[in-house]
Amino acid sequence: METMERYLTQQEERQLLNTVARVNDVYAKRDYAWMRLLRHTGLRIGSCAALTVDDAQEGIATGNLPVNPEFAKRGKGGHVPLNKAARQALTDLLKIRREMGHEKDMQGRLIMGRKHRGLSVRSFQARMQHWRDEADLPVDVSPHWFRHTLGVRIMQHSTAANPLGVVQRVLLHSNIASTGIYTRPSKEDVQLSLEAAS
After folding, report:
1. Is 40 among the residues known to form the active site?
2. 187 is catalytic
3. pLDDT digits over 106-126, tens only?
């Protein structure tokens, strides 16, 4: 069985987010907020890029963030449950959007770029690479790694009777087979087991 590789360990996550948090400009604040949103929701980057102001306000109000089927994988939308950290990230993104000078357009994109347009998927990926380099991470991360990171963390820390079912629900997997990758040993599991066996 292969190990689960494409996710951030707790140390890597801290290193990355702390690096972004230390920079005090509006674009770094924006990036810090969307990274936390991805980390706590497991959204795919296309769905995140498509979020509107209205989606964010609905998520904050109800605790469930709508995922537009038009921008979801295989056209499967739904609602992603939100924890406190995810709701705070949405609140921060709304505030940052105002700080960037964008008017309150309910159907406007939530996460905006420099050219008064919604941040593109490629721009999210480029920003992630920028911060990876700034944080001197030893792994070649992409925004999608936050999705896997959430799945791994749920499997590591959930007290639910069926943590795999929780991962399936949160990540909006229609088939439990897709969720099976989270039963693979994590990088930490392998390292701890090797240390214990030495």
Report:
1. no
2. no
3. 899 999 998 889 999 999 999
Q: Where are the beta strands (DSSP E) in the chain?
A: 64-67, 78-81
Residue 127 bears catalytic tag:
no
151 membership: H or E segment, kind and range: helix 145-157
Confirm whether 144 is a catalytic residue.
Answer: yes
User: From CA 195, how far away is CA 21, in angstroms rounded?
Assistant: 33
Region of 7 (left: φ > 0; alpha: ψ -120 to 50; beta: rest) is beta
**The pairing of beta strand 78-81 with beta strand 64-67:** antiparallel
Q: What number is the average pLDDT over the span 53-80?
A: 85
Give every CB contact of residue 126 below 8 A, 6+ residues apart in sequence. Answer: none
Active site residue 102: no
Residue 7 is a catalytic residue? no
Work out the pLDDT band at 32, boundaries 50, 70, 90.
Answer: very high
| Candidates 30, 44, 127, 153; catalytic one | 44
Q: How far is CA 93 from each of CA 35, 99, 102, 198, rounded to the nearest angstrom?
A: 11, 10, 12, 47
